[in-house]
Amino acid sequence: MVSTQENLEEFSPQEIAQRISLAFKDHRLLTRAMTHRSYINEHPEALEDNERLEFLGDAVLDFLVGAWLYNRFPELKEGGLTRLRAGLVGNQQLAEFARQVGLGQVMRLGHGEADGGGRDRSALLGSTFEALVGALYLDQGLPAVRRFVEPLLEAADHILDTGGRERDPKSQLQEWSQSNGMGTPVYHIASTTGPDHSKIFEMAVHLSGQEYGRGTGPSKNAAAKAAAQSALEALNLER
Fold it and tell me: How far is CA 102 from CA 74, 85, 157, 220, in A?
């Protein structure tokens, strides 16, 4: 666990590389990968945030994870491979990978973002992990990314063991509500908090006009999933 004082500290590129146990040839790429746009807003001398690297890392991960799954599960058909890849490159899982390598402690955030819990926010962690992959790809190519990512994929037992078939709570709630004559669940925004660049949404879900659950998240979809999960728990339905 990193202390609060350390969280307020800005690490050098060499210290970042050491803390996440990942060597870089061009430390400018690593610094950029860790730089959230909220940091740029407060430090105009910083030239670029990590969003372009995030875009690149997303594409690299899609290819690399797809190729890894193709070789790892030769018996799976296209649909099963697609489900597994979706689980492994989804934001929640990428955020977990980011936590495993300690990205939260070394991200370059604006003070407001950091004070608001940004270092453990899944949306931010997942996108930073993608940026890190993009930076590593530019720095050392696909083999280096493969060496970094594949051990993390092998350890994702909760996805690999289920074949990517974990059910989405919104789908499960809709199946239940329709089968019980309550129609399609209706979601609406109950509230929003936070600055424009990192809003937190609260969604409510209604069945037959009655509210059954609420949930929060960094996007409307994430909040709706949390609301659906809350409704499933209120209805004593297992996921």
Answer: 33, 23, 20, 27
Q: 110-151 pLDDT, tens per residue?
A: 988 888 888 988 889 999 999 999 999 999 999 999 999 999
What is the maximum span of the chain, computed from C-alpha positions, in angstroms? 61
Residue 120 and residue 104 in contact, taking contact as beta carbons nearer than 8 Å: yes
Select which of 49, 58, 113, 139 is catalytic. 58
43: left (phi over 0), alpha (psi -120 to 50) or beta: beta
User: 168 an active-site residue?
Assistant: no
User: How far is residue 234's CA from residue 210's CA, in Å, rounded to a whole number?
Assistant: 13
Q: Which of 7-11, 54-58, 88-92 has the highest mean pLDDT?
A: 54-58
Q: Where are the beta strands (DSSP E) in 22-171?
A: none
Active-site annotation holds for 58: yes
Spatial separation of the C-alpha atoms in residues 70 and 148, rounded to whole Å: 18
Name the residue type at position 168.
D
What domains, with CATH codes, occur in the chain?
Answer: 4-160 (1.10.1520.10), 169-234 (3.30.160.20)
- The string of pLDDT tens digits covering residues 159-217 is 777 665 555 788 778 888 888 889 899 999 999 998 877 789 999 999 999 999 999 98
Please give the structure tokens belonging to residue 85.
Answer: 């890849």
For all residues of the chain together, what is the average pLDDT?
A: 88
Which residue among the candidates 49, 113, 130, 139 is catalytic per the annotation?
Answer: 130
